[in-house]
């Protein structure tokens, strides 16, 4: 090898020269023995592993919204009174989503349903007997049948109440209030198909009836027909723009069918319309989870 060459011609390894001697390994410069070198290597490895563990465990957790319950399920408002012939349908506590997903949803129209365990009320029983006596002489009195249905509903005799509403509808099919009473009670009992049929019939009689339009959209959503629900929510928005609950209903159905970007816009519209509502906090949490890449 010619003197002064800095690299080997075969393997290109650096060669020491008078001007550039090879650097001394750190282990030799520290004067560490072979055993000390092994101990130091183990210590460095332990420190690195510990740092990796700390970084891994301190990573921001992902919020899992899958165990959240539907809005208003923990403290549902008192059920609204049943619809009279001149009144609109009432709103009650939110029902669980049909798909089981924990999405923020608007409350469903609900009648004042009482369970079979409701204590007997002497005054209600007396009024029921009066209606039955009246119907014995005029069995085709649709107004009395509707009133009896409302009374039976209060007494917790829900199926009998539905039968009375159904009879009133058969006698006076063009009276929207009878159909709404039937539909609201069916919806409160979770009989979404029967409720949807009567909400549709009501809208054939009163196309501009916003409560019936909104109730139809909610019933379709609870049944799981989100595509149809979106169409009905859109109609309800045309009848009454600026309703926050319509935005919330649209957002839930859009999310369930995978239209995520549109759902995010509707959730934001809901928060813009009702930033201080009781549901706003849960919607913000859900929106943050949904917006995460």
Write the layout of secondary structure elements.
Layout (H helix, E strand, L loop, with lengths): L25 H5 L3 H24 L64 H16 L4 H13 L3 H14 L4 H13 L3 H14 L4 H14 L2 H14 L4 H13 L3 H14 L6 H12 L2
* Radius of gyration computed on alpha carbons: 36 Å
Distance between the termini: 62 Å
* Structure class: mainly alpha
Spatial shape: rod-shaped
What is the H/E string?
HHHHHHHHHHHH
What is the assigned CATH homologous superfamily of one domain? Tetratricopeptide repeat domain
Structural overview:
The protein contains 12 helices and no strands. Among the domains are: 1-38, no CATH class; 108-207, Alpha Horseshoe (Serine Threonine Protein Phosphatase 5, Tetratricopeptide repeat), CATH 1.25.40.10. 31% of the residues are buried. The protein has 293 residues and is mainly alpha-helical. The chain is rod-shaped, with a radius of gyration of 36 Å. 57% of the residues lie in helices and 0% in strands.
Summarize the entry for a quick read:
The protein has twelve helices and no strands. The protein has 293 residues and is mainly α.
List keywords for this structure.
57% helix, Serine Threonine Protein Phosphatase 5, Tetratricopeptide repeat, 293 residues, mainly alpha, 12 helices
């Amino acid at each position: 090898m010619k003197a002064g060459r800095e690299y080997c011609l075969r393997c290109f390894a650096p060669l020491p020269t008078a001007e550039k001697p090879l650097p001394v390994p750190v282990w030799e410069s520290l004067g560490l023995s072979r055993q000390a070198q092994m101990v130091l290597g183990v210590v460095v490895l332990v420190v690195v592993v510990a740092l990796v563990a700390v970084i891994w465990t301190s990573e921001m957790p992902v919020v899992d919204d899958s165990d959240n319950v539907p809005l208003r399920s923990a403290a549902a408002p008192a059920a609204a009174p049943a619809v009279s012939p001149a009144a609109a349908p009432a709103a009650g506590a939110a029902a669980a989503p049909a798909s089981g997903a924990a999405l923020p949803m608007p409350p469903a129209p609900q009648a004042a349903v009482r369970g079979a365990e409701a204590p007997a009320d002497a005054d209600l029983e007396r009024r029921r007997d009066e209606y039955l006596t009246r119907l014995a002489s005029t069995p085709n009195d649709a107004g009395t049948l509707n009133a009896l249905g409302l009374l039976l509903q209060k007494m917790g005799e829900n199926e009998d109440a539905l039968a009375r509403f159904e009879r009133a509808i058969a006698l006076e099919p063009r009276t929207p209030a009878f159909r709404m009473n039937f539909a609201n009670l069916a919806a409160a009992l979770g009989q979404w198909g029967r409720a949807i049929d009567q909400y549709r019939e009501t809208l054939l009689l009163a196309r501009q009836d916003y409560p019936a339009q909104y109730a139809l959209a909610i019933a379709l959503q609870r049944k799981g027909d989100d595509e149809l629900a979106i169409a009905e929510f859109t109609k309800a928005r045309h009848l009454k723009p600026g309703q926050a609950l319509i935005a919330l209903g649209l957002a839930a159905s859009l999310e369930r069918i995978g239209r995520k970007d549109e759902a995010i816009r509707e959730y934001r519209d809901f928060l813009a319309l009702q930033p201080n509502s009781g549901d706003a906090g849960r919607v913000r949490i859900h929106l943050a989870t949904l917006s995460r890449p």
